[in-house]
Amino acid sequence: MCINCGCAGTGAASALHVHEHAHDHDHAPRAVRVEEDLLAKNDRLAAGNRTRFTRAGLFVLNLVSSPGSGKTTLLERTLRDLGPQLRFAVLEGDQQTSFDADRIAATGVPVRQINTGAGCHLDAHMVAHGVEAFDLPATDILMIENVGNLVCPAGFDLGEDHKVALLSVTEGEDKPLKYPQMFEAASLMIINKLDLLPYLDFDVERCKDFARRVNPRIAILELSCRSGAGLAAWYDWLAAGLAQKRAARE
Ligand SMILES: Nc1nc2c(ncn2[C@@H]2O[C@H](COP(=O)(O)OP(=O)(O)OP(=O)(O)O)[C@@H](O)[C@H]2O)c(=O)[nH]1
Ligand SMILES: [Mg+2]
User: Fold this and answer.
1) What is the CATH number of the domain that holds 222?
2) b/e string for 64-96 if b means 16 or more Cβ within 10 A?
C-alpha cells in the first residue's frame, strides 16, 4: 500500500485485509500502524541499500517527476554524453512496458526495467532486487528513474544519495507549491524543456521562488534536453556529487 495515497501497490493485500477486519472503533489506529510498519520496513531496506551502494563506491540518484517531464530523455542524453568517461547503470520504474528500458539499452548502458503493476512508486525492496543484475563495484553512477508521479515517490527512500525532481515548463510554475513534498525531498530541481518557453507563459523566476519557499536548500538547474542548453551545468553537478561521495568514503 502507498503511504501517501493508500492506492494498491506493494503490500496492498495485507493493507486491505486490515481494513476488512478492523472494527469501527479501532479502524484508524490499526491502519496507521500498518502504514508505520510499511514505512519502517522500507526505511530499513533503504538503509541496507545505502550501505551497499556506499561500499561499492556508487553515486546514486533517484529521478522523480510527473509523467513526461523528460526523465528518460535526460538519461539518454547524459549516458550518450558521459558514457565514455563514467560507468553508469540504470533502473527503470514504470507501471507497465519496457519502453524506457529499451531506450536506455540503445545507449549501451546496463539497464533493468521494474514494472510496478498497480503500484505508483518504486520502493527500497524493488531496488535491492533490481540492482542484483549489475556489477556494482564496476559502476560509478546508478540512475533510478522512478514511476512518473509527482506525489507518491516522495515518501519512499530507496537508498539514494539524492532525489532529483524534474519539472518541465509545460506543467506550470505552480507545481512546487502544489506538490511540496516532492520538492522538499529533492536536493536538485531541474526545469526542463526550456526550448518551449517562447510558446508558453511559464514564469521561470516564479517557479524557482516557489521551490525555494518549500525547500530553501534546493539546487536549481534550467535546461533543455532537446537543444542541449544547460546540460553542461548538469554534468558538472553530477561530477561534483560523485567526487564528494568518493571523498566521503575515503
Ligand atoms: N521540446 C522538448 N521536448 C522534450 C524535452 N525533453 C523531453 N522531451 C519530450 O517529452 C516527452 C516525454 O519525455 P520522456 O523522457 O519520455 O519523459 P519521462 O519523464 O521519462 O516520462 P515517464 O517515464 O512516462 O514518466 C518526449 O516526447 C520527449 O521527446 C525537451 O527538453 N524539450
Ligand atoms: Mg521515462
Assistant:
1) 3.40.50.300
2) bbbeebbbbbbbbbbbeebeeebebbbbbbbee
CA of 187 to the centre of ligand 1 (A): 21
In a domain, 2, yes or no: no
Domain assignment of residue 239, given as a range: 12-249
Give strand ranges (E) for 129-240.
141-145, 162-168, 188-192, 219-222
Q: Tell me whether residue 39 is in a domain.
A: yes
Q: Is residue 187 part of a domain?
A: yes
Give the separation between CA 163 and CA 41, rounded to whole angstroms. Answer: 20
User: In this predicted model, what pLDDT tens digit does every residue of 108-128 receive, in sequence order?
Assistant: 999 999 999 999 999 999 999
Inside any domain, residue 171: yes
Quick: pLDDT tens for 177-202.
999 999 999 999 999 999 999 999 99
Dist. CA 107 → ligand 2 center (Å): 15
- What total number of domains does the chain contain? 1
Confidence bin at 2 (pLDDT 50/70/90): confident
Q: Is 195 in the pocket of ligand 1 (CB under 6 A)?
A: yes
Q: What is the dihedral of CA 152, 155, 156, 157, to 10 degrees?
A: 140
φ/ψ of residue 54, rounded to 5: -65, -45
